[in-house]
Amino acid sequence: MDWKFVLALIFALIVAVFALQNAGAVDISFLTFELTISQALVILISAVFGALVVLLLSLVRWIKGQAKLKNLSKTVTGLEQENKQLRMKLEHLEIVENEKIDLEKIPH
């Protein structure tokens, strides 16, 4: 298993145990919204929202990486084609140069 996955599981287990040990009711106020809810539920919901934020940020980073990889792949393909063309041109020039040398060797 990936060490990051194992670390995430351990962290999730710690959060779950912490939430269960702190299960008393708490009052939640947000703007005009007021609610009495279990503290364990607040902790678990907060952990889930935190995980979603991390997931979204990681997804953005992954998408940017994929776009960069695609761009670099196109660059590599273009450079490989240019390299092939230059090698063919070099071979042609070597052949022409060898023919010139052969013609110079012929006595007049």
What's the arrangement of secondary structure elements?
Elements: H1 3-21, E1 25-30, E2 33-38, H2 39-105
Helix pairs in contact: 1-2
How would you describe what is shown here?
With 108 residues, the protein is mostly helical. Helices cover 80% and strands 11% of the residues. It is built from 2 helices and 2 strands; from the N terminus they run αββα. The chain has helices at 3-21, 39-105, and strands spanning 25-30, 33-38. A two-stranded antiparallel ribbon has the order 1-2. Helix 1 runs antiparallel to helix 2 (39-105). The chain is rod-shaped, with a radius of gyration of 33 Å.
Looking at this protein, list some descriptive labels.
two-stranded antiparallel sheet
Extract low-pLDDT stretches.
none
Helix-strand category: mainly alpha
Backbone CA Rg? 33 Å
Span from first to last CA?
79 Å
Task: Please state the average pLDDT score.
Answer: 87
> What overall geometry do the principal axes of the alpha carbons give?
rod-shaped
As a percent range, the share of strand residues is 5-15%
State the helical fraction: over 70%
Instruction: Give a count of the beta strands, DSSP E runs of length 2 or more.
Output: 2
Strands in their spatial order, largest beta sheet: 1-2
Secondary-structure element order, N to C: HEEH
Please work out how many helical segments DSSP would assign: 2
Main pleated-sheet profile: 2 strands, antiparallel
